[in-house]
Amino acid sequence: MVQRSQAEAELQASEAKFRAMIEAAPDAIIITDDAGTIVLINDQAIKLFEYAKHELLGEKVETLLPATLRNKHQKHRQLYAEAPKARLMGVGLDLKALRKDKSEFPVEISLSPIQTDSGKLTFCAIRDVTERRELTRKIEKLNQGLASRNNDLQLVNKELEAFSYSVSHDLRAPLRAIDGFSNILLSSLSEKLDEQEANYFNRIRAAANKMSTLIDDLLMLARVTQADVSLTEVNLSEVAEKVVQNLREAEPERNVQVYVQKNLWVDADPVLLQVTIENLISNAWKFTAKVGEAHINIERETRDGGEVVAIRDNGAGFDMGYADKLFTPFQRLHSASDFPGTGIGLATIARIMAKLNGRVWAEAEPGKGASFYLKFNSVRNTL
Amino acid sequence: MRNQSILLVEDNPDDVALMLHALKSNNMSNDIVIAEDGQQALTKLFGNVENPINPALILLDLNLPIIRGLEVLKKVRDNEKTRLTPVVVMTSSLELSDRYSSYRCGANSYIRKPVDFDEFVKVIHELSRYWLQINCPALDA
Fold first, then answer.
1. What local confidence, expressed as pLDDT, does residue B115 receive?
2. Residue B101 distance to chain A (closest CA, Å)
3. Which domains are seen in chain B, by residue range?
4. Partners of A234 in the beta sheet?
5. Partner-chain contact A180 B120, CB within 8 Å
6. Which of A363, A359, A354, A355 is nearest to A375 (CA)?
7. Which of A119-133, A164-178, A329-343, B68-82 has the lowest mean pLDDT?
8. Average pLDDT taken over every residue of chain A
9. A177/chain B closest Cα distance in angstroms
10. Closest to B115 (Cβ–Cβ): which among A170, A176, A219?
11. Nearest CA to CA, how far is A161 from chain B (Å)?
């Protein structure tokens, strides 16, 4: 007798433990017997279905299903009872459950068989997936939006390419005519023209050429934006030396001291790096035109804890108050009569450096020169 | 050889006038045959006409109506008569792809027409030197 009551007590204790575990579970849990009758239901499930506990205990589990699914569910339940194993219910189907107030909601249900002294039971964990479904729907909608935007972008890109091509061909032809015919007239009329008239002809020509440069610079900016980047190790020093050599040949009368540190290897796209270095050295060359002893230095430095390539000059410089405007297209910090330019070069460089996963910034002081810093993925000096 | 013609394939009348002026100021007095589009150029070269021309040099714009410049270039290279005729592509484009495809299609040279007329005249001057070279080959020693 004593033994039996002890065994009963142990059983009761273990059942109490089991119930406590079920109650503490974060999911709604219902346990049914093999006839589909609800024998246990935790508070989460009560909350989920909005019933009182006593209203569900002893009821068929089909009470919690939309009427249209009840028959089918009964059959499925019988099949499950014949070959029970732990699994998700209705994988790939949109399962629905029914609250007391007859409203439906989407659920995910996992089933596992439990063998007990009082027979086979089925353990059902039920999760309300309304929020997750909503999220999935939102993500799908966002994805669709993205796909359509991507499509739009590709179209715009194609149009832009066609546009640049047309600009490159068609916009320059009239300028060539303006400059060419003014030039021919200027020489054939030379004896009849007074100084001012000749000056006007020259202004027409200068304007046409200015516009031609502007078109070229704009096209370069557009091309850089569209360019595919192929990163590889490039010897920046060699690129720089070639640029300097070209500048010396174009303006042999200028005497500029240029120092280029040897073998500066950087991670870059060769074509885009060429554009960047050409722009920066040409700028340094241009802005040192009015100093007695012009210096340009290109070398590796440590800045903000990283290796950078610095391009310094002792030219006109600029007011640091405008430093943030420097890389905006069409922003010029000097008058055209002092230093001609289109104000597109540095914007192009900023775009290139962003494409190379790098950065460009500048420091300067008016009258004391400017320093431009290029941060690449890696800067290496083989010497 | 000296009096052989130059075929200028150019649809823009302004460019034609400037080109003629530049050629003249470089003392190139050859007959210049002008074709205003690719179709005209092909007809003058290969068409069933009374006097199909056999130019010593072809100056070719790329951006042409009806038949584009590169198509003309391909047909010129495919034809036995003009297979070896020097072709200089002269165009406004700064596009690298234009330059590459011109050379791929068999252009001998590629020149970007400058906006600055002085530069334009210089380019034609270089062209006339090239012209002299192909017309007056060095004598065998």
1. 85
2. 15
3. 6-135 (3.40.50.2300)
4. A266
5. yes
6. A359
7. A329-343
8. 86
9. 6
10. A176
11. 11
What interface predicted TM-score (ipTM) does this complex get?
Answer: 0.81
Below-70 pLDDT ranges, chain B: 1-3, 134-141
Residues in chain A: 383
A172-188 helix and A195-226 helix, angle to the nearest 10 degrees: 160
Separation CA A227–CA A217 (nearest Å): 15
Question: Measuring CA to CA, which residue among A336, A366, A333, A362 is closest to residue A350?
Answer: A362
Q: Which residues of B touch A221 (CB under 8 A)?
A: none
* pLDDT single digits (tens) B63-78: 888 888 999 999 999 9
User: What mean pLDDT is predicted for residues A161-189?
Assistant: 86
Among B90, B94, B119, B120, the strongest candidate for a mutation testing the A interface, having the largest count of A CBs within 10 A, is B94
Condensed to tens digits (0 to 9), the pLDDT of residues A184-238 reads 999 999 889 898 999 999 999 989 888 888 888 888 888 887 778 888 899 999 9
Give whole-number Cα distances, B140 to A27, B2, B137, in Å: 99, 20, 9
**A-interface mutation test, from B115, B118, B121, most A Cβ less than 10 A away:** B115
Distance in Å from the first CA to the final CA of chain B: 21
Rg, C-alpha atoms of chain B: 14
- Phi/psi of residue A260, nearest 5 degrees: -120, 115
- What is the share, in percent, of chain A residues with pLDDT greater than 70? 95
Tokens of A103: 């409203």
Q: Which residues of chain B have a CB within 8 Å of the CB of A180?
A: 14, 17-18, 21, 117, 120
Q: Which residues of B make CB contacts under 8 Å with A?
A: 12, 14-15, 17-18, 21, 62-63, 91-95, 113-118, 120
A-B Cβ pairs (cutoff 8 Å, strict): 61
Task: Flag if A209 and B120 touch (Cβ within 8 Å).
Answer: no
Q: How far apart are CA A38 and CA A58, in angstroms?
A: 5
Contacts of A169 in chain B (CB under 8 A): 62-63, 91-93
pLDDT for A240: 94
Phi, psi of A379 (to 5 degrees): -125, 125
* Cβ-contact A327, A363 below 8 angstroms: no
- CB of A200 within 8 Å of a chain B CB? The answer is no
End-to-end CA distance of chain A: 95
All domains of chain A, ordered by start, with CATH?
2-128 (3.30.450.20), 133-226 (1.10.287), 231-383 (3.30.565.10)
Q: How far is CA A275 from the centre of its chain?
A: 24
Closest CA to A226 of A304, A292, A165: A165
Output the pTM of the full model.
0.59
pLDDT in tens, A54-113: 898 899 999 999 988 888 888 888 888 787 777 777 666 788 899 999 999 999 888 888
3-state secondary structure of A84: coil
Tell whether A216 lies on the interface with B, counting CB pairs under 8 A: yes
- pLDDT value of residue A72: 86
